[in-house]
Amino acid sequence: MADQNGLETKVSAALNCIDLSDPDIQKSAASLKQACMDSGFFYVINHGISKEFMDEIFAQSKKFFELPFDEKMKLWVERNRGYKQPLKNQFFDQETNQQAHGEAYSLVGPETEDDLDPEKPLCGPNVWPSADVLPGWKETMLRYQQEALNLGRKIGRIIALALDLDVDFFDKPEILGNAMPYVSFNHYGVQDADPSKEYILGTPAHSDPSLITLLATDEVPGLQICRNIHANPRVWENVAPLKDAFIVNIGDMLERMSNCVFRSTMHRVLFRQERYTIAYFVYPSNDAMIECFPACKSEEKPPKYPPIKCKDLFNIIFKNVADGKTARDITEA
Fold first, then answer.
1. I need a surface site. Which of 19, 199, 223, 317 has the fewest CB within 10 A?
2. Which residues contact 129 (CB under 8 A, 6 or more apart)?
3. What is the model's pTM?
4. DSSP structure string for 291-304
5. pLDDT in tens, 226-284
């Protein structure tokens, strides 16, 4: 059916569910491979991060976004971290004819106090709320960074098998052994939204430039995916939150490295009520070579993209996104 903006939507996307407690890792790899070739999205359950800790993370995130605006703005910086003020001033989506409504706080890792090299956009120090304002915030978030990275590595082993690679392929130091994760705590608010709209735009259509993205959500729906961005009209499918699960999606880097065997699917956020999410973007090390996996190329199917260092691809992306291009536009160029 079509929504009030003339966009075709479905009730729900049927995603595969990967159970990390299942001892049959080959079965998990087959299910993951089918999901990554189809929609590029899947659920992960029994992931090893406790419900109690996830509840604490969301509680801490909510406390941050409830701070006075002036207090949050103390953490605003030019680089890709810290507080990002309400997004409606930054993004306008022509498809929905709306400005984005949301705010975010981001962390990079591992944190390096003295590395401000502009050619390494995910290096350098983070900016933290004062311990007087949010006691225990930094310690809690550093723990989450590590636990989520451990989860990313677990998923990486299943991805490796799905792509006919050695199971420990992604554990190499130059890939996820020295990974550069990026965490975005997101708050989608309804203040100043147009009451005539059935849905509020949280994030315009985009793909992620990461290897994979791990999304933790509250119980409020909002994520939508579009399997064919060139269709007219586009068909958007709702991805329902699944209790105690992560929603995982393939990013542009992994699509590129898999020679487009795996899909980095366009997605967006449309919501009706206040919503909180945590997006954990898994990136390899700065010096990792983003190139086609051996098992994904042949004489009949040569690599679609030339090799490029991760930090160089980062810089191409971050310098051009400001001009309104998506990561997909840039990586396909």
1. 19
2. 64, 67, 71, 75, 137, 138
3. 0.90
4. ---GGG--SSS--S
5. 998 888 888 999 999 999 999 999 999 999 999 999 999 999 999 988 999 999 999 99
